[in-house]
Design the sequence.
């Protein structure tokens, strides 16, 4: 147990006790690691698997299935851009092109300064405010190019 | 007009507190059930209410509850799992219910657990619905504090624990059997049926899976009775109100609680305000991505489970996605199929291999690279990915919008192939 911090181990242990079944805490444990580290490295996966009494492969089998468990580093802010049907009808392509141009990255990529990762996701359930995106859990709807510029600027200012 | 599901919700979108919910008659159904009703009587009330499953399939909830074996035959532990993994493109009704009135969902879950003698209930929420998950967690703490959850609830011998399960992304998690795998900490792949999960679900124990909107109706049914609930609807045998929604180029996209069976025209014209200026209606998906397109000639159809089936579509989730005359139907269908291809869990071959193939064929047509015979190949896919060839409903659901599009917008597909370009670009 070289890599997980005491705090992370405590949180994972709590979740294992609460779940009451072998392996049932796996997704929650991965989310705990990700909450602290931003993503789940091979070393952290190995430690977490040991706590869950799973092999690393068994846990990776779970981790790689879920689209919001990150097995590669992501930027400080993860932009989830809805690419499903209502947003598509309401201008997803324009929003994606604008975001890509402003950030200088394509879908699935991270900006060179490590600030943003852009990920297309399934319907965010904000169809009445399409097109929509989510940054770090905060929902933004009725997106226009101007609004996107404004939103990105607020995240950049927070870092400065 | 009565709107039991959304009555009293706060205009600022914040969740109702326990006090506010009790002020609206909240937990009266639970008190009434625990004091005066046996579990069997609650089940009978839900059966008589003709509450059809709001997740999209429209199966009678009371009948499904009745499949759970008696507690004498199969002792505890027994589970209830509420499906709040709303990810059907175009659908945003369960988010609304969970964010704005979490106690209604908690009370419904408790009544369901009481009726089927379950002792642990999970509420499954997708990761992107953080606001809903926080509202639920706070409401569960309030309910526990007030003695509604835990051991010996309201002084009776009814015990229930309730746990939110926040997922980590993937449409497949909303498939009832895949959802059980995720709660057990596994990949979201479907399970073989039979046995039905009501007999052998979570950890091999009886487990009842219901949609959020379905469960939110239950407190009102128990409090006011099945006859009242049937009276809310315009369609006999399909009780209650329904949360209808509309998105796309309508004037006022949104969500409205209306009698089950409200005509499509009324929803689109009165509630959604009609089409935006400069746009005409060409077609629509009546209830999310897995339903067949219908067109402007179907505007007088009643939005209920049976009437939509009669015109070759389905009510699904009841949230309408509108296709306008300035949007390419082939592009729209590609957006739908790209979603399904990406979200396939990969467990069975027709879905894993067939969906990307289908999506690529449509993409080629949209890009002007379609060939003669592509539409016939798509029609063959619609058959081979249809019911009976796959483990779960993901692929058959994915075929519904293609079938509808080929039926109503075939000249648009043909124009793409003939002109070797998208006429909308």
Sequence:
């Amino acid at each position: 147990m070289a890599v997980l911090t005491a705090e992370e181990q405590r949180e994972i242990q709590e979740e294992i006790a609460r779940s009451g079944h072998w392996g049932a805490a796996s997704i929650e444990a991965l989310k705990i690691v990700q909450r602290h580290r931003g993503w789940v490295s091979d070393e952290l996966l190995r430690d977490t698997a040991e706590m869950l009494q799973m092999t690393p492969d068994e846990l990776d089998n779970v981790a790689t299935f879920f689209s919001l468990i990150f097995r590669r580093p992501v930027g400080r802010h993860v932009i989830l851009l809805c690419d499903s049907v209502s947003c598509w009808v309401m201008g997803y392509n324009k929003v994606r092109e604008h975001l890509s141009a402003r950030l200088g990255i394509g879908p699935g990529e991270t900006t060179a300064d490590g600030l943003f990762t852009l990920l297309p996701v399934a319907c965010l359930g904000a169809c009445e405010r399409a097109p929509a995106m989510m940054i770090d859990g905060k929902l933004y709807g009725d997106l226009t190019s101007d609004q996107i510029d404004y939103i990105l600027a607020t995240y950049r200012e927070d870092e400065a | 007009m009565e709107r039991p599901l959304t009555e009293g919700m706060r205009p600022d979108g914040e969740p109702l507190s326990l006090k506010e919910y009790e002020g609206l008659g909240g937990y009266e159904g639970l008190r009434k059930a625990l004091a005066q009703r046996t579990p069997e009587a609650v089940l009978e009330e839900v059966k008589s209410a003709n509450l059809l499953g709001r997740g999209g399939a429209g199966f009678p909830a009371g009948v499904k509850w009745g499949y759970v074996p008696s507690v004498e035959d199969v002792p505890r532990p027994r589970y209830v799992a509420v499906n709040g993994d709303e990810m059907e493109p175009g659908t945003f009704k369960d988010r609304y219910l969970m964010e704005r009135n979490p106690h209604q969902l908690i009370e419904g879950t408790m009544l369901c657990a009481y009726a089927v003698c379950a002792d642990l209930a999970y509420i499954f929420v997708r990761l992107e619905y953080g606001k809903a998950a926080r509202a639920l967690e706070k409401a569960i703490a309030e309910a526990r504090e007030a003695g509604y959850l835990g051991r010996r609830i309201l002084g009776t011998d009814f015990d229930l624990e309730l746990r939110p399960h926040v997922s980590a992304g993937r449409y497949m998690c909303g498939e009832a059997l895949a959802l059980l795998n995720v709660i057990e900490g596994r990949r979201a792949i479907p399970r073989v049926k039979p046995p039905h999960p009501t007999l052998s679900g979570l950890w091999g124990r009886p487990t009842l899976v219901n949609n959020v909107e379905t469960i939110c109706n239950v407190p009102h049914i128990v409090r006011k009775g099945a006859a009242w609930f049937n009276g809310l609807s315009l369609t006999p045998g399909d009780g209650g109100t329904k949360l209808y929604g509309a998105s796309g180029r309508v004037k006022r996209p949104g969500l409205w609680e209306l009698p089950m069976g409200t005509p499509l025209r009324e929803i689109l014209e009165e509630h959604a305000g009609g089409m935006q200026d400069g746009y005409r209606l060409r077609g629509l998906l009546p209830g999310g991505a897995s339903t067949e397109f219908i067109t402007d000639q179907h505007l007088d159809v009643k939005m209920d489970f049976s009437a939509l089936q009669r015109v070759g579509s389905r009510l699904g989730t009841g949230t309408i996605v509108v296709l306008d005359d300035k949007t390419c139907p082939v592009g729209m269908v590609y957006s739908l199929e790209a979603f399904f291809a990406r979200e396939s869990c990969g467990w069975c071959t027709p879905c894993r291999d067939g969906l990307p193939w289908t999506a690529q064929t449509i993409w080629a047509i949209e890009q002007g690279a379609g060939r003669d015979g592509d539409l016939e190949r798509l029609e063959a896919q619609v058959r081979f990915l249809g019911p009976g060839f796959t483990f779960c409903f993901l692929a058959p659901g994915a075929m519904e919008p293609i079938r509808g599009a080929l039926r109503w917008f075939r000249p648009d597909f043909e124009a793409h192939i003939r002109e070797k370009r998208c006429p909308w670009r």
Residues 18-228 of chain B form a domain with the Rossmann fold fold (CATH 3.40.50.11540).
